[in-house]
Amino acid sequence: MERKTVYYSDELHDEFSGVVRNTMTIDEKYVYEHPNPLWQICRFIVYRIIMTPVAYLYLKIKFHAEFVNRGVLKQSAQKSIFLFGNHTQIPGDGYIPSTLVFPKNCSVIVNADNVSLPGTLTFMKMVGAVPLPNKISGMRNYMNYLTVLSKNNSCTTVFPEAHIWPYYTGIRPFPDDAFRYPAMYGLDTYCFTTTYQQRGHSSKVNMTVYVDGPFSVNHELSRKDGIRDLRDRVYTTMCARSRNSTYEYIIYRKQEREGNI
């Protein structure tokens, strides 16, 4: 089977998920935290009893997923962490972190589009989706909720590439903005790198996920430099791990701009 080739022009902003939705507004009215006991019971059923085994089985059956160096996460068994990863799957990118950090609860910072499919908002909340505000008025509630997550022995996952490139085998450049969270809350950072290998001589793909960390903010540097240093160490590690991809299920090629030779 001939492999698909995708042409891109902007590593920072091009999006290939194919998802088009009427994005909901995430402002001061959006409720992140639900302390109601009934809601918490329903969330436990949805997240832990239903979706946790579904996530594991999906990764194992579809990708024959293997997890390398997962043991480093044991150091964080009794504390909250931030987890950064490359963004290459729908819905797998939501399944990987919850599988990696089990039995720790896992939340995933997402774009508002991820909670905008009609009728799925409550479900997405229950499985850990934390949408970024798209109105400045929503920032207070968002940051307050991150503070709660930083104190309850949970994992908060960030995809710093922001946009999904299915099966991409490199690591795209990403800004250091998201790395202010570990610096702000004084939490250790881990990263995972999803890589792809051909399954025998077939067109199917295996997945190997590498876990690295912990990375800590260097407090001998200024706050800004410490955040950039943390970002650089995570980025360098993920780039090195990405070289373990040996198969391009989808081929990505940069589109030359008009006028270039």
Describe this structure in words.
This protein is of the alpha/beta class and about 260 residues long. Helices cover about 30% and strands about 20% of the residues. The chain has helices at about 35-65, 90-100, 120-125, 140-150, 180-185, 225-240, and strands at about 5-10, 65-70, 80-85, 105-110, 130, 155-160, 190-200, 205-215, 250-255. The strands form 2 sheets. It has a 7-stranded mixed beta sheet, sandwiched between helices. Strands 1-9 form a two-stranded parallel sheet. A hairpin with a 6-residue loop joins strand 7 (about 190-200) and strand 8. Helix 1 (about 35-65) crosses helix 2 (about 90-100). The radius of gyration is 19 Å and the shape is globular. The model has no long low-confidence stretch (mean pLDDT about 95).
Shape type: globular
Report mean pLDDT, rounded to a whole number. Answer: 93
What is Rg? Answer: 19 Å
Strand content: 15-25%
Element pattern in H and E = EHEEHEHEHEHEEHE
Please summarize the sheet with the most strands: 7 strands, mixed
Q: Give the strand order of the largest sheet, numbering strands 1, 2, ... along the chain.
A: 2-8-7-3-6-4-5
> What is the helix content?
25-40%
Residue runs with pLDDT of under 50 for 5 or more positions: none
Structural class: alpha/beta
- Give a count of the beta strands, DSSP E runs of length 2 or more: 9
Number of helices: 6
Q: What is the CA–CA distance across the termini? A: 32 Å
